[in-house]
Amino acid sequence: MMPEETIVEIENDGDRIKISRMWCGCGSCFNLKIEATPEDEETTVIETYSDFDDIKSGVIARLAWEVDALQKQDKTHALQARIDALMIEYCPEEMTVSQRDEWARNQVATEVQK
């Protein structure tokens, strides 16, 4: 059994996909394992073996890392938005012009219910 490291795990409306890297015995190369679980169904496992085309393997790995980076970026943007909202509310005088501009750029109009 090769050691396994999760690259990315995505859940959406009950569906789940997980992409892992499985290190070989030498520790310098790896294969990929893709697990897809549609909602309320069994998991399908696809493992890439050493004879799997390196280009395809590289593309899948890059895609997985990009998805992971986007998820982290979304979390960072959400945290920054929360910080900006708190600063506008409690200490607007301490915000820089660029912080205020960024906060203003991210505001969305909503309808007021009467």
Short account of what is shown:
By secondary structure, the chain is α+β, with helices and mostly antiparallel strands. It contains 2 helices and 4 strands.
Describe the structure in your own words.
This protein has helices at residues 54-90, 97-105, and strands at 4-12, 15-23, 30-37, 44-47. It contains two helices and four strands. The termini are far apart. 5% of the residues are buried. The radius of gyration is 21 Å and the shape is elongated. Strand 2 and strand 3 form a beta hairpin. The longest helix has 37 residues, at 54-90. The protein has one domain. With 114 residues, the protein is α+β, with helices and mostly antiparallel strands.
Keywords:
114 residues, alpha+beta, four-stranded antiparallel sheet, 2 helices, 4 strands, 40% helix, 26% strand
Radius of gyration, whole Å: 21 Å
Query: Quick one: biggest sheet?
Result: 4 strands, antiparallel
Write down the domain tally.
1
- Mean pLDDT across the residues is 76
Low-pLDDT sequence parts: none
Helix/strand order: EEEEHH
Helix content: 40-55%
First-last Cα distance: 63 Å
Beta strand count: 4
